[in-house]
Task: structure prediction
Amino acid sequence: MRIGELSARTGASRRSLRYYEQQGLLVSARSPSGQRCYDDDHVQRVALIQAFLAAGMSSRTIALMVPCMTEPNMNRARQALTAMNQERNRLSSTIDSLVAARAALDHLIDVNRNFLANVADDQPRTD
Result:
C-alpha cells in the first residue's frame, strides 16, 4: 500500500508517517519510482507508535524500542521495559512538579481573593 492508504487506515497524517520514517520508527520499501510501499504489518506498527506517543513517550525513546517491535526476544523486551519504566518515572516526576505548581498557584489565588474581600469590606457604602 502507498502512504495515502496507510494514512487512511491508521489516522496518521502523511507528514507524521514520513516523520516516523525519518526517526527510524518505521521502514518502508520503495517502488522503482521511489514511492514508499507499506504492508499490513505497518498498520500495526503505526498503531503501536501512536500508543507510545499518546503515553507521552518521545520518538527518540520509541526508537530505542524498535528492535523489540521488529524482532522481539527476551533481551529486547527487557530493554523496552527499561525504557518504558524510565519514561514512567519521568512522567511521574513531571506530574509531581505540576501538582506542586498548582498548589502554589492555588495559594496565590487564595491570597488574592482575601485581598479583594478585605478591600471590599473597607469600601464605604453608598446607600
Observations:
- The two ends are 78 Å apart (CA to CA).
- The mean pLDDT is 92.
- Residues 2 and 37 are 5 Å apart (CA to CA).
